[in-house]
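Q&A FORM
Asked by: J.P.
Topic: structure of Protoporphyrinogen oxidase family protein

PROVIDED:
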Amino acid sequence: MSYNVKKYLKMQEIQQEIKDMKEVEFQNKLNRHKTRQSIISECLEKLKQQTHLTQDEKEDNKRFEGLETQIQQEIKQTLDEYDRRSLIRYQAERNVKEQILCVRDYLKRTGIIEQSKREIQNQQMQYVSPILNMKKLDLATEISQKRQSISNDIKQLKMQRDEAKSNIARLRQESTLSAKNPLYDIKTEENISLNFSKESLTNNRQQMGSLVSQSRFQNFSSNFSNNYSKILSNKNLYN
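REPLIED BY: S.T.
REPLY: Here is the structure written out as tokens.
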């Protein structure tokens, strides 16, 4: 940054400081004088309302009148001081404004301000552009991963659904066969035939089928609920 630009910015800073000056000390001093004046005026008013004054009251009256005159003079001095400060501040502000205008005109003529702005913008782009590109790449990778995860979850749910349909069909078929045939053979790996009565076979088949159906349905329901919740959460993240 050139010397002229620094000087221009410094003048702007000084101008802002002049505008922000607050006469706190003056206000406090003036308020104290006005408070004293109001108290003395109240005392004088009470003394004037009395028709007969003692010697002490007459002396108090004179003393209060002298104090009132003194306070009025102090208030006038305070106001004069404020006016003097205001004039000095106005002159300083006007001088700074004139200097700022001169420097601004010079900078406009030479084009230093525009050149400095372009340099700052170029420096910002050199740092910001790579960061934005990295964030875009990370976001695209994350979206792709979420899509793949959702696709895998959907495939898994479809496989579980098909498996459940197959199990239900097989259980229905076995239940129908056990209800129609009084006796039927169950062959083991050693080809041992075991004959059961119709009542025993039907009861055993129904109990076993009920237990198997209940267990598989619970597993399927639990898996389906978990996978469905995972898909919803992934979709929310993707959106």
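FOLLOW-UP: The CA atoms of residues 19 and 224 lie 70 Å apart.
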